[in-house]
């Protein structure tokens, strides 16, 4: 059992969960993820870690409610526990001095880029962050990112805060500004956003790295469910990734495979809500 | 009883769930011997002075001894003999390929049918589990700490034996549940999870500490275990958990699974109970399923697909029946359950529909040519014989490779060109104090060979721990 120390809503349906996981915290590096199971007999889902505190023995997850399991997870309060947390999994982010590194985060991906910002800054990069949300209330981790970034550009789809438009629009602006001398773009967020970013950076020939989150079971390379096509080769995101060169990723296939269990996900969601309704009455 | 009388007794059949009923459920196929059948079967043993059967047992069970005790009706004694050599008898009694091991050496098999040693082992193990307390005297502690990586058959056996010798053993398991391939790979209809749980609990009572959710190579490295966590020796039994795909077009279509994923979803995660609302892990149920492979994993996959409702559930194998590596009983059970065997066929392409789902697999007929390196006749494609087999789920069960997570993070650990760990005659790796066994050393093998490695390693580790050799 992994006790939850803190659980707060950062935005609608987006929850920050700080959980005791000593062994994971000790070895966590930027880019690593964990697999959790909320209850027995629950499913195993991968979640990328935002931060960790090796001394306190805690890791921080930022979770968006997208289905039954994430909803059960986000229903948990401080003092309750997550049944299983295993990690850190995957390869860590390659941290090097790119000169100017631009991090792009969308939704809960914004929390994923936070430890990368810290590490990239440490090795001497100029670090910019572009973070997006539908409206102002969906923009998260701005203050935290500002601790390690030279500049943070919040963006909102409706223009209610910061740059008026998608993160790709802001990224395009920076790329067109030659004085920025961007050496790398590193991004985490919804697949359509990462795909759009790959498209934006391509003509500029800037190294672009995406963090993929396909369907996984064990997270140790044992099942192969997370396979993605990268540069024409099949890779297992859990052990070969989760980060890959954006221009090599077959995003169409990724989107398609992510939809494998759509029908069952809907069933699980309906089931959870039906249960909640009946327990209320 | 005189040998002539013993010779007159016929092999006692195993009680099985009816084939048409069991093809729709996940309950165990074999129901076990009744007391009388067990006694009769045990009486068939001729009590050979120089019993050869034990030569076929990788863990060296005194087979004549325990079978004799069953014949005498002394099940307590039978259990003592069995458990002295084998910490997981309920498991091996169910999944060992006895026909190529102990039973192959049985003198009765020379002119007729061998004694049902596997069935008797299962009978005694089940009796002991249900009828007696674990009589376990904790040995004096040696003060030595051992880490075991992986809780599959190799790791569990090694841990059990080391704890008998008084060492403090901690097993690290990557998944949330102990048992390794016994719980993620082998289906419940062949080896119920509660049997594995009971035998794992037996080890816990003996003082073995089992820590789940730890991936050695990620959560800790081997050097950390030795240098920081205070372990004096390590046994690596992390299995061959890397699925091999054929590399044919269409493998990333929805509905294509590795056998590992398919079986893990169904067995470990209980995916077959998703529709009933009892579990949260989904599995695709196909009206037509095709599995490629000829081993036990292929049989497990195709029989699982059948139970999930596929009709037909078809098995494709590129060689002929004689070359199939699966246990004879599994092949027989699969056929009885209505699995269609398409031997001497090979898939060459998986075809999808416009939504990215599998719709068929394109196959080619094969014929047997000259013997290859393995001594088996090499299958060669018959030109112009391609055909399509409709299916919505396609499962690849053609083997597994060595998982590199642990070996990559262990400097100085020597592996061969397939990534399997190299060990000496004592199962010690290139790192002093680090031993290894099971599939990570052998490539794909069997539960019992892994257990034999675990047991053999425990003896060498004891020697290393106590005498530094």
Task: List the main descriptive attributes of the protein structure presented here.
heterodimer; A: 281 residues; Elongation Factor Tu (Ef-tu), domain 3; Rossmann fold; seven-stranded antiparallel beta sheet; seven-stranded mixed beta sheet; 9 helices; B: 469 residues; alpha/beta; Fumarate Reductase Iron-sulfur Protein, Chain B, domain 2; FAD/NAD(P)-binding domain
Please provide a written account of the structure.
The complex is a heterodimer of chains A (281) and B (469). With 281 residues, chain A is an alpha/beta fold. Chain A folds into two domains: 2-89, Elongation Factor Tu (Ef-tu), domain 3 (Beta Barrel), CATH 2.40.30; 100-258, Nucleotide-binding domain of ferredoxin-NADP reductase (FNR) module (Rossmann fold, 3-Layer(aba) Sandwich), CATH 3.40.50. Chain A has helices at 22-27, 68-75, 109-122, 142-148, 167-176, 191-201, 237-240, 251-258, 262-280, and strands at 2-11, 14-20, 33-37, 45-53, 58-64, 81-82, 84-89, 100-106, 126-133, 151-156, 163-164, 184-188, 207-211, 227-230, 233-236, 243-245. In chain A, the strands form three sheets. Chain A has a seven-stranded antiparallel sheet. Chain A has a seven-stranded mixed sheet with strand order 11-10-9-8-12-13-16, sandwiched between helices. In chain A, strands 14-15 form a two-stranded antiparallel sheet. In chain A, a hairpin with a 2-residue loop joins strand 1 and strand 2 (14-20). In chain A, helix 3 runs parallel beside helix 4 and helix 5 (167-176) runs parallel beside helix 6. Chain B is of the alpha/beta class. Chain B folds into three domains: 3-131, Alpha-helical ferredoxin (Fumarate Reductase Iron-sulfur Protein, Chain B, domain 2); 145-241 and 401-467, FAD/NAD(P)-binding domain (3-Layer(bba) Sandwich), CATH 3.50.50; 245-398, FAD/NAD(P)-binding domain, CATH 3.50.50.60. Chain B has helices at 3-8, 19-22, 35-43, 63-71, 75-85, 89-95, 102-105, 117-131, 153-164, 181-184, 193-205, 222-227, 259-268, 296-307, 328-336, 404-408, 439-442, 447-467; strands at 145-149, 168-172, 209-211, 233-236, 242-243, 256-258, 289-292, 313-317, 340-343, 345-352, 358-371, 377-381, 387-390, 393-396, 400-401, 434-436. In chain B, the strands form four sheets. In chain B, strands 3-2-1-4-16 form a five-stranded parallel sheet. In chain B, helix 15 links the parallel strand 8 and strand 9. In chain B, helix 3 (35-43) crosses helix 4 (63-71), helix 5 packs across helix 8 and helix 9 packs parallel to helix 18. Chain B starts with a helix and ends with a helix. The mean pLDDT of chain B is 94.
